[in-house]
Amino acid sequence: MTEIFRNLPKVRYEGADSKNPLSFKFYDPDRVILGKKMSEHLPFAMAWWHALGNAGKDIFGDSTADKAFGAAETGTMEHAKAKVDAGFEFMQKLGIRYFCFHDIDLVPEADTLEETNARLDEITDYMLEKMKETGIRNLWGTANMFFNPRFMNGAGSSNSVDVFCHAAAQIKKALDCTVKLGGRGYVFWGGREGYETLLNTDVRFEQENIAALMRMAVKYGRSIGFKGNFYIEPKPKEPMKHQYDYDAATAIGFIRQYGLSKDFKLNVESNHATLAGHTFQHDLRIAGMNGMLGSVDINQGDLLLGWDTDEFPYDVYESTMCMYEILKAGGLSGGLNFDAKNRRPSYTPEDMFHAFILGMDSFALGLIKAAAIIEDGRIDTFVKDRYASYQTTGIGRKIRAGEATLEECAAIAVGNGNAPLPGSGRQEYLESVINQVFFK
Ligand code: XUL
Ligand code: CO
Q: How many folded domains does the chain comprise?
């Protein structure tokens, strides 16, 4: 088979002093951190849609990159196969062990569902061969229920029952493909599950229907042997003005309200959390403390732009706090999917390599620094001590045990006179501890 990324080598770890642009400076897969190999802490995945599908088109301009990968014509089955060849060669060269896909990332959508499904059968047969050859695995699959005009008012939340049924058909087939490829998860990102105006929208009706569709998906998935997690991927807006899975807390509320907790966790994405007005760390913490941190889409937004820019992550403070939350939550059942794309002017195949090297090195550094923060111990000790009065006083212990009454607390307050100040939060000191751990 012809090599697609000719002149681009297998990328290896060369250490922080290397000036070779096509080497890892920090990602050393076999290095052991907190008792586990880096490669196990960091189950990186390639997003089919960005890496193999996105050629740099934006609303002001056409593609800049050539993502035909040698096919005579794009949007054909020949092109779909060329993408498989390119994707597996790329993942092997970067040492990436997982990929994620939407149904229509894999094949061009045909005029009928039957024909699209037949194309999916053909391409997944071809992918399975490559997976066997390379040991590369599927992290998660999903159905694209936002691109086609039929989904203009949503999928599960559509006002039209015919659209709802079409969404169901796509989910059914995407689940078939995910199970066939041995996927570890199945994602619902409700890109158009929301509204443009409340003047035409019955929010309760739409949310009940989304939950009904998810319940059907779980029932069908389990019936065909899907053992992995279902994930909701929160995002507050874009493309819709308001999206129902606004942030981690909202999605967890939805999952609990509709009785989906047994089967669902979250896929938390960095740039989505920041669009919701949170830090990435915030949404990871909310998911983790609720036992709902399943998988993560890693990328980076731009505060000066304010939309979902899906940049490759280079902010090591952010990747560190991400890995800190993941380590604290006991790891991921899913993985770290690069839902990220090259900037439009970085259009060459070599730029794809640079992008993943940047992202993988940023997360390797994040892991190293997060482990160092935990081993240093000052942050964890400070947080624990900050709440010490709930351990050192009788009333504190009673409050924690749920045994105190309002009258009892009030009587203690009266006996104490005015409550003393609660103690300094020491934010600036703690931030300087982080800097010290980073740069010592
Ligand atoms: C869009 C986004 C999606 C999901 C999968 O912002 O993140 O690509 O990850 O549908
Ligand atoms: Co995503």
A: 2
